[in-house]
Protein 1
Amino acid sequence: MVLEHAVIDVTPGREAEFEAAFASASANISGSPGCRAVRLRRCIETPARYLLLVEWERLEDHTETFRQSPSFQRWRQGVGELFAAAPAVEHYAEPA
Amino acid sequence: MVLEHAVIDVTPGREAEFEAAFASASANISGSPGCRAVRLRRCIETPARYLLLVEWERLEDHTETFRQSPSFQRWRQGVGELFAAAPAVEHYAEPA
């Protein structure tokens, strides 16, 4: 299992729009092959910041299958215009 | 429920020491009042980076009760010398 970790800074003032867009667009992630869970959390200290945590069965389910799919395009079309900057995306795994 | 989110950069080359120290010291977190879960994950792109995710019932369980406790001192004594820098700590909650 691999955890996709993305810190998303949204344009300040557009948080409610982002949350609504996320609610519509996130099915593009959760329905993708190998996706086990999608969670969105909002930062308490920096309210225009969100944390997206996605559990994937394998790294390639995110970096290859999802990113090359029409679902990725639809996801980014749904929420991308509300990003203040390109999200910082990393992947984490259980320590060996 | 509040998610504590800490990105911990360990001194490169000391990852195995950190993981062993974490295994010993993390009970100081998990046994603290209001702590529901503690997870550690290792970054795939930056192997000396770790993600600590702790679920707390309330923000104050972390920022007040835990940080003012002897358990916090023991936790930091157990792992702190292996940190390359002070961890960046934030808190996240479910969107309203």
Protein 2
Amino acid sequence: MTYCVGLLVREGLVMMADTRTNAGVDNISTYRKLRVVEAGPDRVITVCSAGSLSVTQNALSRLHAGILMPDSGEIETLARVPTIFRAAQVVGQALQTAKKAIDEVVKDDSIGTDATLLLGGARDGQRPRLFLIYGAGNFIECGPDTPYLQIGETKYGKPVLDRMIHFETPMAEAVKVGLISFSATMRSNLAVGLPIDLVTVRAGAPKIEMAHRIEPEDEYYAELNDRWSNALRAAAAAIPLPQYASEPDPALFLD
Amino acid sequence: MTYCVGLLVREGLVMMADTRTNAGVDNISTYRKLRVVEAGPDRVITVCSAGSLSVTQNALSRLHAGILMPDSGEIETLARVPTIFRAAQVVGQALQTAKKAIDEVVKDDSIGTDATLLLGGARDGQRPRLFLIYGAGNFIECGPDTPYLQIGETKYGKPVLDRMIHFETPMAEAVKVGLISFSATMRSNLAVGLPIDLVTVRAGAPKIEMAHRIEPEDEYYAELNDRWSNALRAAAAAIPLPQYASEPDPALFLD
């Protein structure tokens, strides 16, 4: 399993991914799922991956040689794409091609080749953008109404994002809430685990502002975990107990 | 979609279910999913249902006439089962029979006939018990290590249960935490909705102690919702911001 989140707020872009992969619960490894796939003087492009590791690794490996794009008939590379939108098209084409190639040799329905990517990046003079790319190569873009996208084990960590992330949330706050979302996910799904990789890109500066790996001994993350657990318990304790009178509706009883 | 929770703490049993059903987002209705399927002087048995409504309604309708049990060769009814364990076997047999009958006529894979039930109840002189029954009729029992079971849209509301429900949690507190779990679920999935049906059974007294339907205008639930939202925001705000230095690992960059 996997959990990756991209957050796109006014101040910039945050990309986060866990590093646990598993093929069954008896085969658990650590793999990097967050990568900077292109970094030049005028651009930075990052990708988080979820799903079949053989498909996503294959897709990313194709990027260096460039991707033959059906619409232009040319081989295009991330180093030369004019926009992050075009980068999403190129990576989508790479993912689709990788998945098709692997589907052909696998041909056994019981082997899953589903894969999804988050692509986030910026070019100079353009605002940062964030996309969720599906296995078929199509994608959706993150907008200010719901300024985040998730892939992998998305549900446990979604309520906290829904309640606390807005487009005007400062970037440091977005990192913090993102980590709370990881904390909630790891509490409930063992297949998502530390370390967490994290990069930020500030709007107006198309480069990695901060890149950090949160290891199990990370003091800030441990404190965040504890504070969040304690605050949740205190919050629940502070809510008065229900005082419902018993009012059984006849429809409660099966006829 | 559906969300149902059963909580089995030392003080007793709590059963909760939402009432929203949907066949696509353009066909949403209110159906009762929590029922008292048997109530006699010495017993109470409740069921929550999730999944195919045609399967679960069919299964429950079979209970009145009694179920032919393959192991005893006899027609058995919930009014006469000696234990709640036997009740789970009878209801499991009813569910399996209903699902098989409907699978035979449907025969189209695109129509889902999956269904699950929570069965919770008590007999005099016996502790309350709680089971999760699968479509094949097999089931698992709730134990004190994880004193709750969920069916339907389980993930959004699970973290709060994992953090706050223990076997020693008082029953009123369990109702409150259960409602927080519903609040988290309804915040993130529109297909789970009010009213919420709720019944409690106190250990040592095999009857409905409290039955209540929480309607949209319920003051306590609205207050719980507000307090929980505000407390989460305050809890997140109280956590210091991360101060990570940028330490990019060379492996971050795709070669």
Protein 3
Amino acid sequence: MLRMSTLFLRTLREDPADAEVASHRLLVRAGYIRRAAPGIYSWLPLGLKVLAKVEAIVREEMDRAGGQEVHFPALLPKEPYEATGRWTEYGPGIFRVVDRKGGDYLLAPTHEEVFTLLVKDLYSSYKDLPLTIYQIQTKYRDEARPRAGLLRGREFIMKDSYSFDLTDEGLDESYQAQRDAYVRIFDRLGLEYVIVTATSGAMGGSKSEEFLSPTEIGEDTYVRSPGGYSANVEAVTTPVPAPIDWTDAPAAHVEDTPDTPTIATLVDLANASHPRPDSPWTAADTLKNVVLALTAPSGERSILVVGIPGDRDADMTRLEAALAPHGVEAATDEDFARHPELVKGYIGPGALGPQARPAGVARGDEADGAIPYLLDPRIVPGTRWITGADAPGRHVFELTAGRDFIADGTIEAAEVRAGDPAPDGSGPLELARGVEIGHIFQLGRKYAAALDLRVLDENGKQQVVTMGSYGIGVTRSLALLAENNNDELGLRWPIQVAPYQVHLVATGKDQAVFDAAEALAGDLEAAGVEVCYDDRPKVSPGVKFKDAELIGAPFILVVGRGLVDGTVELKTRATGGSEALPVDDAAATVARAVREALA
Amino acid sequence: MLRMSTLFLRTLREDPADAEVASHRLLVRAGYIRRAAPGIYSWLPLGLKVLAKVEAIVREEMDRAGGQEVHFPALLPKEPYEATGRWTEYGPGIFRVVDRKGGDYLLAPTHEEVFTLLVKDLYSSYKDLPLTIYQIQTKYRDEARPRAGLLRGREFIMKDSYSFDLTDEGLDESYQAQRDAYVRIFDRLGLEYVIVTATSGAMGGSKSEEFLSPTEIGEDTYVRSPGGYSANVEAVTTPVPAPIDWTDAPAAHVEDTPDTPTIATLVDLANASHPRPDSPWTAADTLKNVVLALTAPSGERSILVVGIPGDRDADMTRLEAALAPHGVEAATDEDFARHPELVKGYIGPGALGPQARPAGVARGDEADGAIPYLLDPRIVPGTRWITGADAPGRHVFELTAGRDFIADGTIEAAEVRAGDPAPDGSGPLELARGVEIGHIFQLGRKYAAALDLRVLDENGKQQVVTMGSYGIGVTRSLALLAENNNDELGLRWPIQVAPYQVHLVATGKDQAVFDAAEALAGDLEAAGVEVCYDDRPKVSPGVKFKDAELIGAPFILVVGRGLVDGTVELKTRATGGSEALPVDDAAATVARAVREALA
């Protein structure tokens, strides 16, 4: 039994200055966590109790799905991560350590490499497969902007599992078993989620889905269609229109377009000076060329131009996903200064891509001076555009894709908008925000090939193993539970993860009240109920209730004035409802309520 | 139920090349751990199960002793460790990390500072005390020589607890409560231990005791006397003899002593050329001056000379404890070259200490060129010595301490020998070796003062809190359990920490045997017994027995040829004994045996 008189806890009436979101605010105020450094938290007794319950649910479902628990070091040598290229790809996103002998180590952000090597170390035959192993372990990422308390930290707990199969069908089955386990885990945690198609990013591999918990404060945007399509906005593909016959298209013509620094001013000028007979020009008729600076993991900087319809903005998140592991930002004045062929405000395809490149020079080879050029998928052959003429104050009209300009390829760079068609034809998209709580990947053979994990198949031939990788943010899930379950008074934990089930409050100064409460606490404990007893003698009822509500256990049991009439009061934190119970069978009644709530 | 057919395990018949000690050898061979890097290990499913049992025992006893569990980050900012001086004192012994913004961090080897700051953060009154909080957490030390598997690693698990009290008496009580808990923990683990007086080393503080597990492979040496004295050899103090009146002592005289490079040759020459009437000279009559190079945590190097009786060696371990946080090594030729006053082989007090220092120059200030000089406590005023005369080929006889030379102080530098008197007069010492599994400290007010942890006392006055710090090596304790419980066949776990209780082996190819074994495994599980069932169909009985013995569960239950007669065989791993059991009530009998063994 916890006792408030001795529990290592200090609740705060004020919000911490650095807390932007409710979970951060309340977990600190209610004494679950304390900040130790940016993105790094200490766990107080109450926090640790919730964490243990979340971990237990994750562990049970991993075991039920046939996973076997192992535990890897957090501090790992560079070599395996070098073999897969990730030592470099992670760039500044990981913590690196040099030991006293000069050896390079990292604090692992994820463990694909060493799981792969461990299986290679132990197993050698198809008979050993399939295998799924997992760990619940502390992970590290040197986030540029740690924020929102536990939601984006630098030291955090993840469950990561890895599956090993001989065949693609086997991988499908292992993937599905983990997916099913995730559904059970989040259902049991009482955490709302959507499963969306995702990109693989720096992990590599093919199929990938995310479990996102819908919330306004989420950093991820996802889409859904009425027909059941759902995807992270990073993974949305644009339906490609059919090419248009350009036989009768007018020739391109360059026009003076003074004072048109924006798409809006350009469209106004076009309609005023060069009107189109059938319909006015709109921003959708313009081709905007966005100049980006890429930073390779090695630190090398290069320029890329992306062409998108002028009525859409470039989406940096989608660009980052499309260009990973490169970093992406808008080009700076210095970048422009190094590329005088880019006439700011009047950039057109003439200075870009393969047509600006001497014959025989490959794409992406900047040594020839030509800047790589990628187009939004909507810019198909035959589409006609107003775009820059690569000269100050001049634009070109009716510039026709395929006929007048070509690019090095396509890229998903433009924003996705509500109402855009789903790529599978299942209707218009709607957008929402969420936080990633789980991510499952079919890695395929990338890591096994890089680290030479092979087994003998039934015919005695060496086969590269195919792998899956599956993560759950454990501390992040806990934070989301706090984020989704609170009100103006404090936290309202679902009973399955609450630090304890019943918060027993003794009010007033009457020793009989404290004696009765003490007895009741003992009876509840004996009935298997987790109790925190507020036995503080000189604390006012108001303070005790405030603490109980802030901490957020599902039931608050009050022993006070009603005792003279033989009753105690049971409050339900989630509903705010309360009822008087006869004190004599209060323990039995409350124990039953707890059991029912848990069922 | 574990099944050998799917358990993530590969037992090895060969010892790993790098394994020096039994625990390391067997934990790797039996599939409990795998090396990930020097001193850094991954935990396989069986290892994790043993670890969980060890942790559970530690946790239960900490809770029973009133400890409250918390959890701190491993990655911590420099500042608190700078405030106590340990950021520098640790020197190369810790892993340091720089984050993307240039902030300095460390992977914490122990957490005094941040526990202190957390209590300061939350508590402010004497009413909040006493408080004991603990964690079971991954710790990091960049050991110069990681060795012996889990016994001296660089990433390892510790239980560390910290007590906070207002008064010295309170600290005594908190210390005793932890000490009692440690006794219960090691008793429950079945781990033999001795409790010895220890030095506080870099931790600071006053009273300190170690729990050492006696073993030949231990790096620590400890002493015991018949009267109950026990101490780490580092903490043994030498009884100081009474000073001797030198009124009638002969004058010192310098003699030629050619070809006396060793104490033995010097004693021989002394007896041949300068015999003493009452008794022959022995090595105990010579004063050996040992030249040491110290390295401060800042990296600064300095010279110290230590004088000890010539019949004893200097003990580097005792010197390191005495001189911490400085590093100590024998002076090199380069060090000698910088100090021409040190005539190698003929160094005497004449060139050393305060008498070689101009008046008014403080000890330890090397700027004046005088080398600090410390003496073994046996060298009391009036003792007479043969020692170097600071000239090649010459020694001085009858040099009398106090009369002819003085030093800057005393130091415990000489080896402790079996038969030496205990400092408390409780008889002659005997020596043994052990491994430190627990260490408890009365830190006192060092950390609280450095970090300004104060509370209001009953009179409304600010008082600095007094603290204790208490550690248990969790993974090291597990390794010692393996070290102490094995034979030529493999591990022999005490049942309370075994990965499972019964290893059920089905032998032969008869399907009836496998059916019976499967049913028996189910019955055992239903009876609450932890079972690993070796269900592998095409593996020979010999291999199965070897694996069972290597893995080391306390009971091995064999279903095989006896089944036609209605019997199975129960083997006890610890004794090697076996008995036939009727198959029909085998589950009940084995469950009873397990319960009895656990009791």
Protein 4
Amino acid sequence: MRRWNGWGDDAVSYHVPERAVRFLVELMGPGTPPRDATAGETLASAPPAHPLEHALVKGDAVERLRHARGQSFPDWVALRSGRIPAYPDGVAYPTSEADVVELIRFAQTRGAQLIPYGGGTSVAGHINPQPQGARPVLTVDMSRMNRLLRLDDASHLATFGAGIAGPDLEAQLRARGYTLGHFPQSFEYSTLGGWIATRSSGQESLGAGRIEDLFAGGRLIAPAGALELPPFPASAAGPDLRHLALGSEGRMGILTEATVRVAALAGRERLAVSALFLPDWKSAQTAVRQIVQAGLPLSLMRLSTPVETETTLVLAGHERLIGALQRLISLRGVRDGKCLLMLGFNGQDELVRTTRGEALEIAGQQGGVNVGRTFGSQWYKNRFRTPYLRNALWELGYGVDTVETATTWSNTSAMVEAIENALHQALVPFGEQVHAFTHLSHFYPSGCSVYTTVLFRLADGPGETLARWQALKDAASQAIVAGHGTISHQHGVGSDHAAYLPAEKGELGMALLHDVCRRMDPEGIMNPGKLLAA
Amino acid sequence: MRRWNGWGDDAVSYHVPERAVRFLVELMGPGTPPRDATAGETLASAPPAHPLEHALVKGDAVERLRHARGQSFPDWVALRSGRIPAYPDGVAYPTSEADVVELIRFAQTRGAQLIPYGGGTSVAGHINPQPQGARPVLTVDMSRMNRLLRLDDASHLATFGAGIAGPDLEAQLRARGYTLGHFPQSFEYSTLGGWIATRSSGQESLGAGRIEDLFAGGRLIAPAGALELPPFPASAAGPDLRHLALGSEGRMGILTEATVRVAALAGRERLAVSALFLPDWKSAQTAVRQIVQAGLPLSLMRLSTPVETETTLVLAGHERLIGALQRLISLRGVRDGKCLLMLGFNGQDELVRTTRGEALEIAGQQGGVNVGRTFGSQWYKNRFRTPYLRNALWELGYGVDTVETATTWSNTSAMVEAIENALHQALVPFGEQVHAFTHLSHFYPSGCSVYTTVLFRLADGPGETLARWQALKDAASQAIVAGHGTISHQHGVGSDHAAYLPAEKGELGMALLHDVCRRMDPEGIMNPGKLLAA
């Protein structure tokens, strides 16, 4: 059963080793677990719903609660404290495009707002009803539009209902000999439509590409009509409207079906992951930059700073494995400041062999020590377990959030430093220490993503906890904008980043986005407050 | 000196071998070379210009003539016959962004229309003043905004003035150890800004990507203000506005500078091209599809139908080489219906070796016979000479045009057949035969481009010649649209394809494009009639 106020399946938990708890206490002081509100207490405080009578709409309190919040830190504070500022008034589960058209018409006649809902895994406030809204809010849960509609074998194109979740999509494809290869951290719950609407990027983006590269076309049902995006392999016929649907975040309409570019499964059943340690942060960055700029067809890289490397090893808790690793790398002359680098390969055999050889050679020139595949396999096996750590940390009294951007190589070091510094400074006024660490996990010849995790102590009450988070979020976002990074490489804009969007789109760019949304949704009923602040 | 009424440098000509002339006569009957108007005759008939007095504007007749037409077939008919329906009233050569801003302001105050002009190589009518225009027309020739402005070595990013032409751009990059790798057929004259505005694709798109992949960001100066597009390596921050500038065709403003993703030159100095013959069209298509779907990092493929293969060999006129080739492939059991396949490789040594081995193996499984690198090297050396053939054929009394699209693999065969059939049928009412042949030259896992060349006899007068062309163009365009192809894979929309754009963008999509253009250019002064028919 999926947790209603935390991450994932309630049968799965992440054990934090004793040594790791001591590590956290040393860094930030002891945590005080807050008392979470029960579902019953929370439901009792839910405001009454505006009536939204329609055969497709459910108005019961559990449905409303289950769709009230996503997975951002403020979402967690709301859910765990039971103080949820706004609920949808109803939840609809369309099963066809006709249902979607009908729900939009219904919303128009009732003056209601619509929130498209995929897997509810947003960490930027994409699916939250706006507080203080005077109009009824109808959440449209797309989970029942989850079928494989068409498969074009020759063209490696698969068309799905946009509500299909990651595991179902991969299962359907694998049964037919294909894979999409899109594995965001949220994979277990997030949906194809959500990936497209938020421009998601998967762990294997280096090989498979971002969702932009995989989304060939589809149908977006807007209040103003249907926007059909044909799945051409490429086109020079004017501006590419797919790139308006990508990142549209529910403001323009509801994506009902999407055609994606799939790959043959043979050779791609699983990723082979090698782990290396680089002697320091500078040479580690040089290695990954040179590997990606050499045009080697790897499927994944993930490079941790020294602090993240240490934290990962402590939290992973494989004491014996770590002891062995430590001895091995220290024997080879790598001591403090080492950086963990994971390299992932799949695809055609010979190509993998060549790619691995060349990548390891480049890393070796920077002092990289290959520790083999055991650690990499462990990471690969557990890669969707990491978000469960949030539950465990919360229950120890610690909050965790991640901030992320992308910037050019010449700017990467400075950006990492600026973000980590901003986070370290942000809670000084609160008399609190934070623990912040970073990895680079999406790579391009011109730059990479920067992904920083911050741990901090939860406060006595939800208001104070939220104030701490807000200080961290503001500081990091300002550092990103000031450092000429994008406000999001992979989480999207939602409501949490909307204030920072004008810094990168500019005045004219923002006007264009408003124009496009207005054309698609003249009455402004689609997902208000997201993407565009007003 | 660049030809004013044909392709390229007037010191370069393409010799059509005697055997090839006989081949053309057999197919279409003898050609009757039309008498071309002289530049003097043409200039004498130019209408007087609307006065456009400004320090940056030149109004002399030679400048106006040199910027009146591009390289489409109707452009050639106009230039060769001396009957040019419309001239610009003046030509400006800005040298800075301030000049561009000033020219837009000047146009606004004078009620003039602006046509951004790169290299004048459009084959779809992008830079032509509209006939019957009542407002003065100012062509803005960007050729003096052609400097390398910034080079970010670590990030492999180079920023250029958008007016830089292909050879200058590559020369500047190569002097610093880099290459862009973008080589459209028009490379010798076309410009970076033109590539971006028309979504150009180069011969090595399989390796380097299309211009969409290479264009990281830049500045577009619109009548409504400046649109700054930051060069993030990737972003999830909402819709990607670069994809509005890409394909904007001068309707939204003038691109003044562009940042492109470059690659290290080492290993990419030149392409190694292997030539193969496949036994028939079906197995040849299977080979290229399997190669691209295997994810092999080739830089180029080019596959000709049997008819194009024969035509290429005849027109190339390397009698001895061809004789040897014919004997070789016939010895290996490949006879009639053979298809020429070129495979191009560059980049990191080991990767090239592996890629070549795997690609040749796949082709071999389809009966491909590798004839080595001599023929491929010849093609590579002469790859920018091909457009000169247009001059030679015209002077023999034959017209030549190309039509192109992209479609999915499952649709490729049918599309080739539909286009060639449409072209063969189109001149039946004129009692004329055409010679049509096709190659596939841009490859994607989901499909490819289809590029068809048509030869036909010029008529007695320009009106009748134009009527023949129009019949061919209409027939091919209708076949493309009916067959669910894009109206352009690489030539853009311009005026010649504008009527077919709604078929793929849809009603709502067209409204979005109009909204975007209106926001950027509220008075509608930018390049009217292009991209959007009205």
